[in-house]
Amino acid sequence: MRSFVSALAVILGLLLSAIAVPAIWVDRDIVQENGFVALAAPLGKDPAFQKRLATAVVGSIDTGGSIPGPLTELIRPVLESAAAALTGLPGYPAAWEETLRKSHRLNFPAASTTPSEAGSATSVTLDVAPLVALATKQVSDSAGVPLEAPRQTLLTVGQSSQRQVIERVAAYAPMGYSLAIVAGIAFLLALMVARRRWKVLAGTGIGALGLAGLWSLGSRWASDAVLGTATGNEVADLFAREFVAASVNGFGSWILSAAITGAVLLGAGLVFRLVGGAARKR
What we know:
This protein is mostly helical. The chain has two domains: about 1-30 and about 170-280, no CATH class; about 40-165, no CATH class. It is about 75% helix and about 5% strand. It has ten helices and two strands. It has a two-stranded antiparallel ribbon. α1 packs across α2 (about 35-40) and α4 (about 70-85) packs across α6 (about 130-145). The longest helix has about 50 residues, at about 235-280.
């Protein structure tokens, strides 16, 4: 009976861990604003993304209300120069970080301290208004004409169905912490009631290795599913591709930790088995 309860507790712990670990990672690195910014910040340093982003940002500047029609062509070189220089401006890193924070609040209103910023967005969007404001100031100073930056400039990077998935994830991801606690209790119970604790260690280790493989396959499937839907916008598609790659790499470190933990537990179980067997022979 003790062996049965111990085996059942290990299985329960593994099943809960299979859900808890990805949920905790999603909550920390995507749902939480600081984690999202840390994950996505390096994208702003990618040369290809910087080039397309700068072109899109400068292209969204509305000069029609401030510059007469005949002078529009004269300001075109100023816009092209601003697009080329945008990512090199001293204020670019701060503007990119603020872009990520505004975009996170837009897509994760439940996790935001200012839910009113969510507006009426129904798809996954980036709010590049801080970058547009930086570019607008650059163009205004260079051309000598006053230009007003919009409060919000949205780029669609995902479909409405993906927005619905995000809302569900934001709601359920925090449950991962509770599941992890229950999983820990289950593993502890398994060790306490087991007749042969080395089997619990070895079995948990094998299970952890299996979970690492399962999570690896799952992350690839999720990546392919997200990248399989293109928006038609080069900037949006490039952001989605790079963000998915960063997410896969970020969760990959957790998968590696799980695999190492599994190998250590399996090794410890086998060592205890050998030591215990040698002690009984004496």
